[in-house]
Predict the structure.
Amino acid sequence: MKNTTIEDCKLIDLRKISDPRGNLTPIEGKIDVPFEINRVYYLYDVPAGENRGAHAHKELQQLIIAANGSFTITLDDGEQRKSFTLNRPYQGLIIVPGIWRDLGDFSSGAVLVCLASEHYDEDDYIREYEDFLNYKHS
Ligand code: TYD
């Protein structure tokens, strides 16, 4: 999916079931996110000052959530860049395929949860920025 832009990526408010015993946020495939969820992974114990990401995916759709703490995601479609700070467990960022992402500014204790539309597939990654630009412009 190379004709996507950062305008196709958006911050969404997830359902929040407030309760004096503690709040709950459910996420269901095809209901709260526009895809079936085939994989979940989380990033944690990120040392201060470290960056993650720095790649794009050809087909993978993702919802990224800050389950705890905060971090910044910078999206790049080869033409424009936009940064989002995630810091609420009931908000998520939908990232469509064909978008380069850099992750940084992880707070102490930050937990990034990713819900993904596909199983892990290294062939779906574009790991060199130059290759990404060629892919977008091909
Ligand atoms: P990667 O997606 O490159 O993380 P980041 O871009 O944030 O640095 O993944 C890091 C390593 O983890 C890489 O060797 C592949 C492996 N990995 C899996 O085995 N399964 C997964 O679902 C993910 C996301 C990564």
